[in-house]
Write the structure tokens for this entry.
Amino acid sequence: QPRLVIAVDGPSGSGKSSVCRAAATQLGAAYLDTGAMYRAATWYCLDQQVDLDDEDAVALAVEELPLTISTDPQHQTITVGQADISAEIREPRISEKVSEVATNRRARTLLVAAQRRIIDEAGFIVAEGRDITTVVAPDAQVRVLLTASAEARLRRRGAQLGGTQDAEALKRQVLERDKKDSTASNFTEAADGVAVLDSSDLTFEETVNSLIGRVEQAQ
Ligand code: C5P
């Protein structure tokens, strides 16, 4: 197995997670969803009734967070202690609060260190998030910023939620989260050496193939 790290960043609704999971599956690589780790940290803070405005309390909670995350692209499970929270971390109550935890500097430092350990241990892995190409794994052999127009992202996020949501409310939520997130890391512009993959006019398969093509070039 090659030692090869594929780092992918992008905003929510860019299709990042499904694209990276599919690419990892086809490549036979491991997969790390770093957003799930920020979501799990948020779940834990809410579970422990930590005041999210209290920076020290949030950092302490993340320090003691008993987190396990699977790196199998086809079986994504994430647990905190004995609790399997794989489904719960996708709930709106988590999406609404996650940026508050993600902007906590100490929490980020801790989670970034955990992500580096997971990537190191896996060796051959597709890791995705907001700061993988720049902070977590800047020396990755493949570094890609996966983007999509605001329209494409809203369309996909709407479809993901079953099309039952009020379009205006959805737009507000997605753009609001982008704005909050962008204070923690810049994922809207590609850093030096990071390739932009714009999926706005690509099908899912085309996007996966484009990512795999870059990996094959690097191998
Ligand atoms: O990718 P996903 O939407 O699940 O990420 C959830 C949240 O986790 C993001 O909105 C962002 O606040 C945070 N995040 C981050 N850095 C990463 C991955 C996610 O700050 N590398």
